[in-house]
Design brief:
Blueprint (H helix, E strand, L loop, with lengths): L5 H5 L2 H22 L1 H9 L21 H6 L13 E7 L7 E6 H18 L6 E4 L7 H12 L3 E3 L6 H11 L3 E5 H14 L9 E5 L5 H11 L2 E8 L4 E8 L6 E3 L4 E6 L13 E7 L10 E7 L1 E3 L11 E2 L4 E2 L4 E3 L2 E3 L1 H9 L4 E12 L2 E10 L5 H12 L4 E5 L14 E6 L2
Parallel strand pairs: 3-4, 3-5, 5-6, 6-7, 18-21, 19-20
Antiparallel strand pairs: 1-2, 7-8, 8-9, 9-14, 10-11, 11-12, 12-15, 13-14, 16-17, 18-19
The chain binds 5'-O-[hydroxy(phenylacetyl)phosphoryl]adenosine.
Length: about 425
């Protein structure tokens, strides 16, 4: 077995929980002493650092939402002197109001180590050529993968986003072994390969994909099409970026979250009470080791469940979560039925001949919502086939429109799947 930080990745559950308790006490004291906004929030919740003795005391602390972070833009939760900041990243967020994440040197090191753990866990070894296709810029994807690849000693090919024909040429010219990207970019590469019609990419062995829900069908399409082993990498701007939270291991039995750096809580979406392991809920994250902008009980909006706290076949003791199935704010309610875009994706991909490109259009006709699904498929699939299958799987019948391969628009970066139309005004 290979690990980037063997002692930390395989320490016993007892040690891990002891480390978390110590670090939780320290970080709570730290944010209280170094940031007025945190101090005020703690006071409003009637809690003091001394009240936090064990991990179970975490429920006494106030939660922090994306909205809180937006309102504090650009640096309301900063806990270090501005002169020590070394880098920043930003997420645009669905409303367009940004959230900024600032890093000091210790935070950049922490990010690099978390990312390097993910790489080594996936089988990457020093000297392996890695092509990094998320964009380099304010989005954390490109630079996070870069920092980690430096730490793991990989040979970095920093292509950034787009120009798929050139990406393919570089894979061939430099025998790229590891390919990284947002999930939908894996599909884009497959399409480009098909249109070139001149063979596959045999040097590729490892695919590291994330930033979007990774349905089983999408995963299989990428695995079979690119003939590599796909890994699902998880992270977000607010926790410090890609890879900070973790990834699945070669056992593919859930996402290992780096628990010496983060405390995971899965809470009921309405009551905010912890749900039992195995039950789905909303993920809250506390960062234990970040210095510039630590988050305490950050409400991620992501839906998951705890799969296991047992040591994994890979030797790691860190918790395993189910892959992220969607976001609380993505849930759609049409004609009284709740569903997530990822369920539509899963159902669509079960239809033979359907291609992995689709749009969900929510039509609003004077307050009455209806849904239409546009999907690319080969000539064997009709709108009727799509409608019938979605009805069986989702319990309601959106209108299905079929487009030829390449008939729907593509975006650079994360794919946009849901569109809103207002009609009849
Ligand atoms: O998307 C970080 C990242 C970059 C992860 C590249 C993996 C690869 P944000 O733009 O802040 O950061 O978006 C974070 O994206 O709360 C999830 O809703 C979603 N997300 C990220 N990774 C996954 C994943 C990056 N593996 C938000 N599966 C998160 C499902 C994911 N959703």
């Amino acid at each position: 077995m290979h690990y980037h930080q063997p002692e930390l990745e395989t320490m016993s559950r007892d040690e891990l929980e002891k480390t978390q308790a110590e670090r939780l006490r320290a970080i709570v004291r730290y944010v209280y002493d170094n940031n007025a906004a945190y101090r005020e929030r703690f006071r409003a919740a009637n809690v003091e650092p001394g009240d936090i003795r064990d991990v179970s005391d975490i429920v006494k602390l106030p939660v922090i939402s994306k909205e809180d972070l937006r309102l504090s833009y650009p640096d309301g939760f900063l806990c270090v002197d501005r002169s020590t900041i070394r880098e920043m990243h930003m997420s645009s967020g669905s409303t367009g109001t940004p959230i900024a994440m600032l890093y000091n040197q210790a935070d950049l090191d922490q990010w690099a180590d978390c990312m390097a753990r993910c790489y080594v866990m996936a089988g990457c070894r020093a000297g392996d050529p890695i092509q990094i296709t998320p964009s380099f810029g304010l989005f954390n994807g490109g630079f996070g993968m870069y920092h980690g690849a430096r730490r793991a000693g990989l040979f970095i090919i920093p292509t950034g986003a787009g120009n798929t024909a050139r990406q393919i040429k570089l894979v061939r010219d430099f025998q790229t072994r590891i390919f990284t990207g947002v999930v939908s970019y894996g599909i884009r590469v497959l399409e480009e390969l098909a249109s070139q019609g001149n063979g596959g990419l045999p040097s590729l062995k490892i695919g590291i994909f994330g930033a979007e829900t990774f349905s089983d069908s999408m995963r299989k399409t990428i695995e079979d099409g690119l003939r590599l082993e796909p890994f699902d990498i998880y992270g977000m701007t607010e926790t410090g970026g890609v890879g900070t939270l973790g990834q699945d291991c070669p056992d593919h039995s859930g996402l290992h979250v780096w628990e010496d750096h983060y405390i995971v809580e899965v809470l009921d979406r309405e009551t905010r009470e912890p749900v039992p392991d195995g039950q789905p809920g909303e993920l809250y994250i506390t960062s234990l080791t970040r210095q510039a902008v630590p988050v305490i009980r950050f409400r991620t909006g992501d839906i998951t469940r705890v799969l296991s706290r047992q040591r994994c076949a890979c030797g790691r003791s860190h918790i395993r979560l189910a892959k992220i199935t969607g976001r609380v704010d993505d849930m759609l309610i049409i004609k009284g039925i709740n569903f997530f875009p990822s369920q539509v994706e899963q159902a669509l991909m079960e239809i033979p001949g359907v291609l992995p490109n689709y749009q969900i259009i929510i039509e609003d006709r004077q307050g009455v919502k209806d849904v239409r699904v546009n999907v690319e498929a080969d000539g064997s699939v009709t709108g009727f086939t799509v409608e019938k299958h979605l009805k069986e799987r989702l319990g309601f019948s959106p209108k299905g429109d079929v487009f030829p391969a390449g008939g729907l628009p593509r975006q650079e970066g994360k794919a946009v799947r849901v569109f809103y139309e207002t009609a009849g005004e």
